[in-house]
Write a structure and sequence with these properties.
By secondary structure, this protein is mostly beta strands. It has a single domain, classed as 3 Solenoid (UDP N-Acetylglucosamine Acyltransferase, domain 1), CATH 2.160.10. The chain has no helices and 13 strands. The strands form two sheets. Strands 1, 3, 5, 7, 8, 10, 11 and 13 form an eight-stranded parallel sheet that branches. The protein has a five-stranded parallel sheet with strand order 2-4-6-9-12, with no helix packed on it. The mean pLDDT is 96. This is Phenylacetic acid degradation protein PaaY. InterPro entries: Hexapep, Transf_Hexapept/Carb_Anhydrase, Trimer_LpxA-like_sf. Pfam families: Hexapep.
Length: 107
């Protein structure tokens, strides 16, 4: 299993049918949907705002997803986040693709 850490009373939620690579890191208020894939080196930091990954979405190798107080970072169902992408406080829509090494900031 991945490195999962509690933060301020929040523990990451990972359904049994979701795959999280053993070298991924999930911190705090992270909620993964069913049938997701989280690749090696991915860091989902729900230490300030909540992170929600919808059903069937995938977050590839070395991605970083983070937010800030009062703002969620969301990848809607069947969203695809390419290798090395950084998402900060934004929403990625259903069936959307974020290319490799892209950066999407606040909003």
């Amino acid at each position: 299993m991945a490195y999962c850490y509690e933060f301020k009373g929040f523990i990451p939620v990972v359904p049994e049918d979701t795959y999280v690579h053993p070298q991924a890191v999930l911190i705090g208020n992270v909620i993964l949907g069913h049938g997701c894939y989280i690749g090696p080196g991915a860091s989902l930091r729900g230490d300030f705002g909540r992170i929600v990954i919808g059903d069937g979405a995938n977050v590839q190798d070395n991605c970083i997803i983070h937010s800030f107080p009062g703002r969620d970072a969301v990848v809607e169902s069947d969203g695809h986040i390419g290798h090395g992408a950084i998402l900060h406080g934004c929403t990625v829509g259903r069936n959307a693709l974020v290319g490799m090494n892209s950066v999407i900031m606040d909003g």
